[in-house]
Design a protein that fits this description.
The complex is a heterodimer of chains A (447) and B (447).
Chain A lengths: L1 H8 L8 E7 L18 H8 L2 E7 L5 H10 L33 H7 L3 E7 L17 E5 L17 E2 L10 H15 L5 E6 L11 H5 L7 H26 L6 E7 L24 H4 L3 E4 L8 E8 L3 H8 L14 H4 L10 E6 L2 E6 L2 E6 L5 E4 L15 H15 L10 H9 L14
Parallel strand pairs in A: 1-6, 1-7, 2-9, 3-4, 3-6
Antiparallel strand pairs in A: 2-8, 4-5, 7-8, 10-11, 11-12, 12-13
Helix pairs in contact in A: 5-7
Chain B lengths: L18 E7 L18 H8 L2 E3 L2 E2 L5 H10 L33 H7 L3 E7 L17 E5 L17 E2 L10 H15 L5 E6 L11 H6 L6 H26 L6 E7 L23 H4 L3 E4 L8 E3 L3 E2 L3 H8 L14 H6 L9 E5 L2 E6 L2 E5 L6 E4 L15 H15 L12 H8 L13
Parallel strand pairs in B: 1-7, 1-8, 2-10, 3-11, 4-5, 4-7
Antiparallel strand pairs in B: 2-9, 5-6, 8-9, 12-13, 13-14, 14-15
Amino acid sequence: MILHLAAAALQSQAVKPNIVLIMADDAGYADFGFMGSKQIKTPHLDTLAYDGAIFSQGYVSSPVCSPSRAGMLTGRYQQRFGHEYNILGMLKGYDPEFYGTDVNEQMIPDYLSELGYVTGCFGKWHLGKADQFFPTERGFKEFWGFRGGSRDYFKPSTGERKIESSYETPEPVTYLTDDIGRETVDFINRHADEPYFAFLSFNAPHSPMQAKPEDIARFEHIENKRRRIYAAMMYAMDVQIGEVVKAVEATGKADSTIIVFLSDNGGPTSHNGSINAPLNGQKASVLEGGSRVPFIVHWPAQIKKRTRVDSVVSSLDLLPTFLDAAGQAAPAKLDGMSLGPLFTGNTDSFAGRSLFWRLGEMAALRSGDYKLLRVADRPPMLFDLASDISEQHDLALERPGIVRRLMADLWDWETGLGHPFWTTGAAWMDSKLKYYDLEYELEQPGG
Amino acid sequence: MISALAAVVLPAPIAKKPNIVLIFSDDAGYADFGFSGSLEIKTPNIDRIANEGVNFTDGYVSAPVCSPSRAGLLTGKNPQRFGHEYNIGTKMPGYDPRYRGLNIKEKTIGDRLQEQGYVTGLLGKWHLGEEEQFHPQNRGFDEFYGLLGGSRDFFKPQTGSRKLISNFKDPEPVTYFTDDLGRESLEFITRHKDEPFFLFLSHTAPHTPLQAKPEDLELYKYLPNARRQILASMLHALDVQTGLLLDHLKALELEENTLVVFMNDNGGQYDWGALNAPYRGMKGTVLEGGVRVPFAMRWPGRIEPGTTCSTPVVAHDLAQTFVTAAGGAVPENETDGVDILDVIQNPAPYADRSLFWRFQGQAAVRKAQWKLVRFTDRPAQLYDLSADPSELNDLASLRPERVRAMMKEIGNWELDLAHPLFVTEPIWKKVNLSHYDREYQLTQPKK
């Protein structure tokens, strides 16, 4: 039903639009000019945001890297196919054959290849280290990047951190963020005459905290050294996004190119100097600070400048949106909805929608403006995000009926999930349950 | 708490190591034995163990289903500590089959009693792994006669994990399996009457398939429920064999120096004729009906006949109990259990010991008279077992601080657990949860 409406919402495209999907890694919710930061400078992203749509309530499907990417690329809650936990290191008892995104799942490039797109992935993969999980086995025609979750920005590395490419012998890294941008620009130039899908998967500003000296120099006024380097990493990423936009414009097809930007999860404020204000929590928590992210879509042919969308949207919606844009109905097994109607202000199909999260002992549900958190070591928490975006006023004891209903809804969703193919162990969970008792910076720092 | 206050545990007058016989029934209900309250089912021989020793009114198992319950009993630990949370069922994708059994790093009671100079025997059901590394002979048992799996036909030969195997004899064709196990137990005792022995007599009765001897069925054909007729008849055969064993100990003059324990492996299988009255719930739930079991211990000369102990004790206390009785000790950091003889003698420090369970998404903690049950699909429930043994009157909303404290206690306990080494199909979570919402018969039917 919804798909039908959505498909009708996007006028059929004479040409298949190009798609550039840009993902930042561990960026803070508030660390962009267009999100209100006075410290972090992201002029290119700001232009993209102001010339397109800013989604004020955009989410990813997991508060950690690998499952978030698995959800986005498959368009399905990743817990359905065992990808509930991050890929950090194999624990005993699990079968390495399955240590990646289930090979039976289709990804965005699988769908788009069938529709005649050339597809490429540049940067971080983090969806399985073994060969059967390699990007070119998962629908991407081209890949330049590394299999793991993070790596040094300057030095050569080995194993899952090694730079590998399907189309060239990779040269030594200069500054990795620059290299990822350069390869994406090169891809766009090479494929300017055919519909393409580029997944630009930065590892910035994920640790290790490393930036170019000239970029660090721009932020000398930031006293905290870690945040100073973080700001420089964000700046370098923004410059590369500017280069990619420039390349798109140079092809003369900017109007019919969809550019999406989002981050893979909330900022890990305990680790990389990021700030999620006004959101409470951080990466790896099911608080808003873990899974609510900056989320913009730029598509001049369909989206007016300065569009603001307040509907609740998810990274799971991207695949249905891309299929819709390419004139294809989304298969029923997908969990998201095309964002198409929202581009023209039709919010009906998104009204009152529910989104779900679960990462082992922590789970959450957003239903309308209510957010319920079920964390194993404490009673359920209930927040009204309309009046309490920072999740400060727990309403659970006051509204037991709503808690009961939402817990039942959460469970109902869980009954459709599979078993995890791996976990990250109790010690990891131990460190994350502490995140619910920390104090977070809920206001933007001054410039 | 204890019927006779002082010195119900008498000093050890003997240097000779006691023999230990542990008799386990399978899937019987809490109230399906005379000593635990049945008015219908007569178990005069099993009752002797309680009457001539101690009846634990608040005796628990480590888990509400067969395999993890046995894993907890034999290791002296909460089985989740070493990844044994689930039953051993279908092999699931992502899990390494080499780990599908009782973690080989764990010592069993058999291992520990061998170190004390005991000859050890397992007769009957194993259900702790089928691969070579998990075989009873590799897990501390010198002699094995039984099946590696979880159940088998009582009359017919079977194959695979249900096949009857032995390392000391050609297993004869099965006659009636409960009788065969009884016969083997007498022979084991005769063979080893001159050395300290540990016999784990692990009956499969009255687990399905429900099969009884025709002459035993005659005894209970007046019962209204056809399944309960068979279950009662199976328990009769088990009781007769227990009587023969106790008589045999007496005839060989081993009675005084033999510690005999009787208990069931988990709550009764309500769908197959077992009754847990007055406790609500059944096998698979962490309600009292899932984890509280008939539990009795006899040790003439050490335990005063007719003792009743209402201090909570749990199956994973038996490792420390047996090893201490044998003259050794399980190091404290290697067990979650305590010496039950000390609990009987000196109950005060154990009165508010916390006991924990977790299975298929639900978890529970008991501390003194309080029991908290944590659900996936609804807020946690709090019961006062002293006033409400059937867990019908949820006090959670009246005592939010106690709920918060007990939730934290469960959460902290969980953080010391290992990741599961094997799991079962997610559908079981749904089936399992439905057992919390059923109506149960909570009173004993009169004869």
